[in-house]
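Q: Entry one of two.
A:
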Amino acid sequence: MKKILSIQSSVTVGFVGNAVAGPVLLAMGHHPMMIDTISLAAHPGYGGRAGGPLADHLFAAQLDGLQDLGETGDIAQIMTGYLGSVGQIDSIVALLTSWQAEPSGHYILDPVMGDAGRLYVSADLADGIRTRLLPLADIITPNQFELAQLSGTDITDLDSAADAAATLLTQHAMTAIIITGVISAPVGADQTTADHKPDIGDLLIMRDGTQVWHPATSTAKNVAGGGDLLTALFSGYLASGLAIQDAFSKASATAHTIIAASPTPRDLALLEHLGLLAESQQP
């Protein structure tokens, strides 16, 4: 059992952010330590917005409190996802800087900014993720749109995603990049039939040049929280001792099994598959 600190959103209804990370990591036999950046009645897919971000001073006090209690030294990994404000970045950077000063695990950054061609955080927050958190990350898990935002390049297919990731790896001291929801080829006039529909999947690019493409199943679809699920699974498998490449392949396959079984785009079929996560940890 490993301690994994998860800093991201919390919802009462639905499965995104810490509502995914908590059950997933517990089912995998790890100890999730969760700090919420924002608390909402339900994720935006339900319509409307009820709740809001944790005040910056309270958020900072929680992170400081973990260190004061001596609870950060044996944390195996830190994950950050959706943030509630630009001010939260200061506290996260302070925690990471202290944690990384000693032998530690991986900082996994899920740079939650937007999807489908649009930002759904402020430009200031997106810039803070790119300029302050990205340089501290060991592994990042952007979707295709977020990778484009981080790299400043257009991404239309597998090759351009790989090129953008390779560029980021030359600019930062990261070990690996996992891109979710990558379209394997540009959609063109000759790809309008089912037979020519491009694949969608996840792509791993490592500093040593390793590339692994894991296409989704034939029933691939976009379900809220899918990226959060893959990141939590990857973190759990990594904490269990799997190598990065193996943890990625297993996380991608497991995530797409759950996504494919989800009846609507609004919610993951997560609770129904917690037993699968426990079984996946068996030798």
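Q: Entry two of two.
A:
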Amino acid sequence: MDKVRVAAVIPARMASSRFPGKPLIQIQGLAMVEHVRRRALLCRRFCEVVVATCDKEIAAVVEESGGRVLMTSSAHPAATDRVAEAAEHLHCTHVVNVQGDEILVLPSDLEKMASAMEAQPTVPAWNAVARIEDPAELSDPSVVKCVLSISGRILFCARDLGRCAIQMNNGFEPIRRVLGILGYRRDFLEDYGKLPRTPFESAESIDQSRILEHDIILRSVPFTKGYVGVNERRELERVHSCLRDDPMQQAVLQEVLAG
């Protein structure tokens, strides 16, 4: 196949059901979506980094900082649909979907995603995962979990696996925390929007379920740690704590704020 060219697309919208307006929440004097964009730029493996949105407010903030924005439809049912539309305008072979609320994503982890895609470019889709650190995560609906096969293929995703906390005592193998960083072959993304929405996707609002329920391979990419994403307002304090206390996060934050 052609030389692998990986682009990063950051989907963001104001109308989040659980936390409206969250892309523009100010953290350390910078909008959350801009934190994510600048972290993606620190990963030198991307041929391009763009924000995909249907909201002019988000576009204005990103463009004011010198970022590229692709305006997309407001009718998309899932973030992956928005990424698929944006990918039509990019010169790339593969796309990484960096969810706009993954404010703590490490550029070094994004490098791992790009490396996995370059190593197996024919795989249709990838998803970043991390180990479960707190048993409470298994029943927390804001934390999506997955079950891995022995080869690292993602078999199933769910929001509540609380019963496993009682029945598993070996570090919750083979359960992982699902992170909001996904990778796709561009030609797969072109077909994604044509796939009908699936029962688990609709019931749990998990994009990955549409991939899995259509028998499409979704491979896992282990990340350093399951840093919290901002799905609800209550998670902001955990973000502030990480930025304050985690040495790796402190180092990245300084680069982000320096622009």
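A: Comment on entry two: The chain has a mean pLDDT of 92. The radius of gyration is 17 Å.
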